[in-house]
Design brief:
- By secondary structure, the chain is of the alpha+beta class.
- The relative contact order is 0.20.
- The chain is built from five helices and nine strands, in the order βαααββββαββββα.
């Protein structure tokens, strides 16, 4: 019998402000993004997970940075910044045999939580960005896959609060995330826009 969990690392108003400041940058300029993340106090992933706070934790997703809150962030100058803030997963003795998020700094996990709790965390973050940016330009739901992508077009980038299969590691089933995406790479609300739009609207 598998046990269901939802893990979350909250996105508060301070983090929303920080992400919107990053969304004003050219996300394809890796040196500038890296400098801004350092100024914000987001250490390199290897530095953070090599520190004492992570000595007792199991494996954590690989990323490029860790926020002071504990989010694992991937921002490597390719025009994107990916910040997961919730995971939906099962512990079944197979792929996962323990609740790996229970001991990760900044994260909490809730046994027995599932889709309603996961969706509620996602909706909270959508509302935080809506409070700052106004109504989104796109709010696309795909009931078949239980996914929702909400996006705002900014001058240079797109802000997406999304749900979907977790792309960084093979440990989790699904994540909720904030994605900053450069519009210079492709003038569309999603990366690989044709494929993404086909998936979400089919």
């Amino acid at each position: 019998m598998s046990e269901e969990y939802v893990a979350v690392c909250p996105v508060d108003e301070e983090l929303v402000d920080r992400l919107l400041a990053l969304a004003e940058l050219d996300l394809t300029d890796g040196a500038t993004v890296e400098a801004r993340l350092r100024e914000a106090g987001w250490p390199d992933w290897s530095e953070a997970v090599g520190g004492p706070a992570y000595e007792e934790t199991p494996d954590v997703p690989e990323a490029t940075h860790v926020t002071p809150h504990g989010h694992f962030v991937t921002a490597d100058g390719d025009g994107t910044l990916h910040l997961p803030f919730a995971y939906l997963y099962t512990v079944d003795g197979g792929l996962l045999d323990e609740d790996i998020w229970a001991t990760v700094p900044g994260w909490t996990s809730q046994e027995g939580a599932w889709r309603p709790e996961f969706d509620a965390h996602h909706a909270t973050v959508v509302q935080r960005f809506t409070d700052r940016l106004g109504l989104p330009h796109h709010d696309i739901r795909q009931p078949r896959y239980n996914t929702r992508y909400v996006s705002w077009r900014l001058e240079h980038n797109v802000v997406i609060v999304g749900q979907g299969p977790e792309p960084i590691s093979y440990d989790q089933f699904e994540d909720a995330h904030v994605l900053l995406l450069s519009r210079t790479a492709k003038d569309a609300p999603f990366s690989d826009s044709e494929a993404m739009r086909a998936l979400l609207t089919s």
